[in-house]
């Protein structure tokens, strides 16, 4: 009898324990989780996206990580014309932040600010960017040249030409690309010289830049870029990079209206294994006379 009572009490104790755990731990935990979820949903719905001014404030007063991230976000958001502040005060603050960032231990802050200025395509940033070409850091010079190319102001041409003899191939490459973007014919003779550069990428982009300027001097290089056998001779270039190089060559081919280039395009349209290349060649051929 006593054993039976003891046996009956064990389930009752376990049942009471489950009720206590459920009441004091499980239910409050579920309520807390739902409260957090509701809070996050409401915050997402009611929060407004950061503006360019918000990211600039991060650059000015944020911590070390916040500063470079703010500059990076600026370089993205300012590529949207609708997000570019129209007031002169923002221009002055950008320039001031860029100049002050020369003292920042993280060079990314200044580099991303340069890219952000270029993204606006506002020529008021040109003097500041030109002054930064005296930097000892190749990455900083590249960022400023890239920005100047995006802005497209002819006032930057001579300063970019002066960088064509830089010791770093990646700097020379960016200079060649930006000269092609700006499209000032005064740079043609310098671009012709760059087709003899020791770095093959510089030679390729010099020919592309010349084509954009309507100069056929790089015709032989463009024909090579349309030749998969030639590109296959560079083992460090994969299929994606091959397609990218060929697409650029296809796009600039109409600028010089060369018969050999047209013949190469016909061959690509009919025989290239990549559908994207075939379609690009087909469209480009319609631009030939």
Task: Give a written overview of the molecule.
The chain contains 16 helices and no strands. The longest helix is centred in the N-terminal third of the chain and has 45 residues, at 2-46. Residues 1-8 have low confidence and may be disordered. The radius of gyration is 30 Å and the shape is globular. The chain has a domain at 215-289. The protein is mainly alpha-helical.
Number of strands: 0
Structural class of the helices, strands and pairings? mainly alpha
Shape summary: globular
Helix content: over 70%
Q: Taking all residues together, what is the mean pLDDT?
A: 89
Characterize the largest beta sheet: strand count, sense, and whether it forms a barrel: none
Beta-strand proportion: under 5%
Order of helices and strands: HHHHHHHHHHHHHHHH
Put simply, the count of helices is 16
List low-confidence stretches: 1-8
Separation of termini?
109 Å
What integer value in Å does the Rg equal?
30 Å
Overview features:
289 residues; mainly alpha; globular
Summarize the structure.
The protein is mainly α and 289 residues long. Helices cover 71% and strands 0% of the residues.
Sequence-ordered SSE layout with sheet pairings:
Blueprint: H1 2-46, H2 52-61, H3 64-77, H4 88-100, H5 108-120, H6 126-131, H7 138-151, H8 157-161, H9 169-182, H10 188-194, H11 200-212, H12 219-225, H13 228-232, H14 239-252, H15 259-271, H16 275-285
Helix pairs in contact: 2-3, 2-4, 3-5, 4-5, 5-7, 7-9, 9-11, 10-11, 11-12, 14-16, 15-16
């Amino acid at each position: 009898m006593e054993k039976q009572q003891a046996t009956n009490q064990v389930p009752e104790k376990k049942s009471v324990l489950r009720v206590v755990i459920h009441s004091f731990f499980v239910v409050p935990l579920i309520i807390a989780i739902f409260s957090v979820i509701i809070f996050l949903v409401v915050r997402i719905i009611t929060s407004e996206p950061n503006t360019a001014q918000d990211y600039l404030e991060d650059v000015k007063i944020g911590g070390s990580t916040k500063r470079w991230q703010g500059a990076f976000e600026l370089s993205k958001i300012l590529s949207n014309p609708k997000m570019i502040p129209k007031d002169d005060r923002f221009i002055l603050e950008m320039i001031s932040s860029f100049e002050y960032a020369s003292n920042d231990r993280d060079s990314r802050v200044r580099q991303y600010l340069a890219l952000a200025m270029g993204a606006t395509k506002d020529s008021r940033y040109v003097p500041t960017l030109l002054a930064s070409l005296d930097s000892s850091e190749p990455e900083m010079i590249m960022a400023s040249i890239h920005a100047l190319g995006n802005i497209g102001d002819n006032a930057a041409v001579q300063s970019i030409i002066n960088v064509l003899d830089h010791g770093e191939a990646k700097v020379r490459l960016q200079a060649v690309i930006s000269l092609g973007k700006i499209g000032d014919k005064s740079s043609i003779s310098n671009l012709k010289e760059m087709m003899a550069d020791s770095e093959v990428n510089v030679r390729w982009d010099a020919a592309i830049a010349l084509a954009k300027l309507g100069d056929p001097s790089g015709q032989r290089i463009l024909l090579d870029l349309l030749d998969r056998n030639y590109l296959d001779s560079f083992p460090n270039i994969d299929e994606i990079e091959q397609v990218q190089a060929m697409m650029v060559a296809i796009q600039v081919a109409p600028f010089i209206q060369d018969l050999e280039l047209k013949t190469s395009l016909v061959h690509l349209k009919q025989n290239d294994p990549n559908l994207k290349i075939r379609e690009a060649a087909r469209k480009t051929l319609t631009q030939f006379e």
